[in-house]
Amino acid sequence: MSVTKPPTTGGTVSHTDASLLTECDVESTYREVNDVQLHVVAAGDPDAPLVVLLHGHPDFWYGWRDQIRSLVEAGFRVVVPDQRGCNLSEAPDGIDAYRQSELVADVRELIHSEGRESAHVVGHDFGGFVAWNLALRHPSTVDRIGICNVPHPRVYRETLRSSPQQIVRSWYVWFYQVPKLPEWMLARNGMANMVDSLEITSNPGTFDEDTISCYKAAWRHTGITPRIHWYRGFRRSDHPPRDTVPQPTLICWGEDDVALLSSMAEKSVDYCKDGQLRLFPGASHWVQHERDEVTEALRRHIT
User: Fold this and answer.
1) Residue 156 annotated as catalytic
2) Given 120, 152, 229, 285, which residue is catalytic?
3) Known catalytic residue: 292?
4) What percent of the chain has pLDDT over 70?
5) What domain count does the chain have?
6) Residue 194's domain spans which residues?
7) Which one of the listed residues 59, 66, 106, 125 is annotated catalytic?
8) Where does the pLDDT of residue 3 fall: very low under 50, low under 70, confident under 90, or very high at 90 and above?
């Protein structure tokens, strides 16, 4: 696993923009899309084929640091937003601002802000749900889709209705629906519970002390509430108008995911017109952090 060390000042991260990547030629930009301002890290030739990388919870753009470097070297233009409510992006008020339709519109307009009609889109965790929904709601906007450890939306809904094991694993989704209590629990003790959510769901050593300092700094910018609203808004979201993903799709799945059953990965391929599944034994929910082969597989898929 390759590692990029963040710059620190006295053990504390001083910023969470593109300057975190000292070994890459990247820049922080701000884009006005869908009535919100998104912080976007961009790299690569502006005229090269476009790839959009979407982070999940409790991540921010920095979760794609190793993939940014690799994809730029492979000849791509890479844009990585902090999704609304995260790190340096704007955090609108209210649960409805975090419905899937709004998150999808953010990404669609972000692609257009690059002067493009479409892009390759890769998502992890909740960012994977946004990627799935973009491909299903606006298929002409997505060229090829890459997914890391999140199932197709229909598979997730059906599994939650039929699998007691998945219901138990998704306890946090139900907990996040409770007003105010999740925010209090996650923000207390210096956001220790947020740190636990990284460490419990990953293999030992995936997130070192310096990297966790980056995450804590990012969480402080917008607070916890907008991230919880992602899950509240997801519950209020309309279902996509179709189930079959028409774009070539690659699903990369760490089999030791403590939150999501691997059987959902296999079922998700059935909803892809041209789908591939790569399983990674021993890898956790954070498969793109733990396996260099994931980056290579994604690069080959969109090339």
Assistant:
1) no
2) 285
3) no
4) 95
5) 1
6) 18-302
7) 125
8) very low
